[in-house]
From TrEMBL, chain A:
Annotated spans, Disordered: 1-22
InterPro entries named among the record's database cross-references: OxRdtase_Mopterin-bd_dom, OxRdtase_Mopterin-bd_sf
Source species taxonomy: Bacteria, Bacillati, Actinomycetota, Actinomycetes, Micromonosporales
CDD domains per record: arch_bact_SO_family_Moco
Family annotation (SUPFAM superfamilies): Oxidoreductase molybdopterin-binding domain
A Pfam family that the UniProt record links to this protein: Oxidored_molyb
Name of the protein in question: Molybdopterin-binding protein
Domain Oxidoreductase molybdopterin-binding: 35-179
From TrEMBL, chain B:
Domain of life: Bacteria
Single GO MF annotation: oxidoreductase activity
All residue ranges annotated as the FAD-binding FR-type domain in the record: 10-112
Cofactor: FAD
Coiled coil region boundaries: none
S-adenosyl-L-methionine as UniProt keyword: no
CDD domains: FNR_iron_sulfur_binding_3
Any Pfam family: NAD_binding_1
The protein's name: Oxidoreductase
Keyword Transferase included in the entry's annotation: no
Species assigned in the record: Actinoplanes cyaneus
Length: 199, 249
């Protein structure tokens, strides 16, 4: 236990059940982005999975949204300490997108419009754990929150859920993405409070 | 509580509050003595942890307001959020001599690196001025040659943090320009009625896109969205615009 803060009681504990360590509950939806919000016209949107052999699997908006979609309700946890419970999304499971992808690589680099990247082990994207989401709360996903479509990996800190995602690149070795290269944790499990390198 | 020697590992340590300064009616600076602080770059933040007597704890991130001359205290400036859990404690309860746990510095993107030769544009909304103040102070200490322009939006003159210091720095530094935007009430004699930041403000008081400035925008989400959109529309390279947002939408 840390040093006692004289006169600090804490006000939120009753309303914050079952949160990962160091998180607090929020009811709004904060926006964290490293730069301006890109506006991506749907007729210019595409999403590509590139294997370690260079093979590309690409979807345009029409083909992507014609894939079977799922309703997803999950808690999300941002490394800046806020958590939001029971968020609802619509998206395409990565299991669906990877169905015809042949790969022996274990790691993935997600790429976004604007140059953002983040690294994730492939096993964290499969088996019903991750989606490319394009609706939030029944509405098309706002550009500020990553629309037209973003990665959604709710079991990891939310910086891994790359906004404006446009590609996944398979890698044999784990390599740091944008925030990971700036000192954030390579994996980012909120329940183990893996915020920064060495956590 | 000593920092470990493990490189790249951020450990919690106890800091001592050595002074407090009221910046506005609702914002306060805590001057912290942090033994073994490794130093920080202007724009970085730190994590702070409070612990109640029964072990309940709360963490928050705060931008660092001070520059880093190699030693000395670390300053954070906190805006009180009325429904907040941590900020009212820091602005109203903490006293000189109290100990607070923190770890840092954190963040390597929203950082001004003085080796970058580009001119600098800083755009602050409210307490978003805090990490930008660290950059302004670093500039002053290094006598950096890159010119700085600052646009600082506040509700009223009373809400401006660091107002006297900014005035003094502008007077003493020909390469620093600060333009205030007042959204609710302006000082007597101010040439324009209160208004929100707009294209004309940024066009007149920022740098032309041709100068390829390094741009830092920090403030509430809607403010940052507006400013970043205007900058992109004016022709600034999105890759040169670094943003830090707070609050929901």
């Amino acid at each position: 236990m840390g040093i006692i803060s004289r006169g600090f009681g804490g006000r939120r504990r009753d309303s914050a059940p079952d949160l990962p360590p160091g998180q607090y509950l929020t009811h709004d939806f904060p926006v964290l982005s490293a730069g301006p919000t890109p506006r991506i016209p749907l007729d210019r949107w595409s999403f590509t999975i590139t294997t370690e052999a260079g093979q590309k699997h690409t979807w345009d908006w029409a083909r992507f949204t014609a894939l079977p979609s799922e309703e997803i309700t999950r808690d999300i946890h941002c490394v800046t300490k806020w958590s939001k419970l029971g968020t609802t999304w619509k998206g395409v499971s990565l299991d669906t997108l990877f169905a015809d992808v042949e790969t022996a690589a274990d790691y993935v680099m997600a790429h976004s419009k604007g140059g953002y990247t983040t690294n994730v082990p492939l096993e964290d994207l499969l088996d019903g754990q991750a989606w490319i989401a394009y609706e939030f709360d029944g509405e098309p996903l706002d550009p500020e929150h990553g629309g037209p479509a973003r990665l959604l990996i709710p079991h990891l800190y939310f910086w891994k859920s790359a906004k404006w995602v446009n590609g996944l690149e398979m890698m044999h070795e784990d390599e740091p993405g944008f925030w990971e290269a700036a000192g954030y944790h390579m994996y980012g499990d909120p329940w183990h409070e893996q915020r920064y390198q060495g956590d | 509580m000593a920092r470990t020697a493990l490189p790249g590992r951020l450990t919690w340590q106890a800091a001592t509050v050595t002074a407090v300064r009221q910046e506005t009616p609702s914002a306060r600076t805590l001057v912290l003595d942090v033994p073994g602080w490794p130093g920080h770059l202007p724009g970085q933040h730190l994590d702070l942890r409070l612990t109640a007597e029964d072990g309940y704890s709360a963490q928050r991130s705060y931008s660092i307001a001070s520059d880093w001359p190699g030693d000395g205290p670390v300053e954070i400036t906190i805006q009180r959020l009325e429904d907040g859990e941590v900020s009212p404690y820091l602005t109203d309860v903490v006293e000189t001599g109290d100990k607070i746990e923190l770890r840092g510095p954190i963040g390597g993107w929203f950082v001004w690196r003085p080796a970058q030769p580009a001119p600098v544009l800083l755009v602050a909304g409210g307490s978003g001025v805090v990490p930008l103040m660290s950059m302004i102070r670093e500039r002053g200490r290094l006598r950096a040659r890159q010119p700085f322009r600052v646009i600082y939006s506040v509700r009223t003159p009373e809400d401006a943090c660091f107002a006297d210091e900014l005035k003094r720095r502008v007077r003493d530094d020909a390469g620093l320009d600060v333009h205030f935007v007042y959204t609710r009430s302006a000082p007597d004699g101010w040439p324009a009625p209160p208004k929100r930041i707009d294209v004309a403000t940024i066009n007149s008081h920022g740098w032309p896109p041709d100068f390829a400035p390094d741009v830092f925008v920090c403030g509430p989400t809607s403010f940052v969205e507006t400013v970043a959109d205007i900058l992109v529309a004016l022709g600034h390279d999105p890759k040169k615009i670094r943003t830090e947002r707070f609050g929901g939408k």
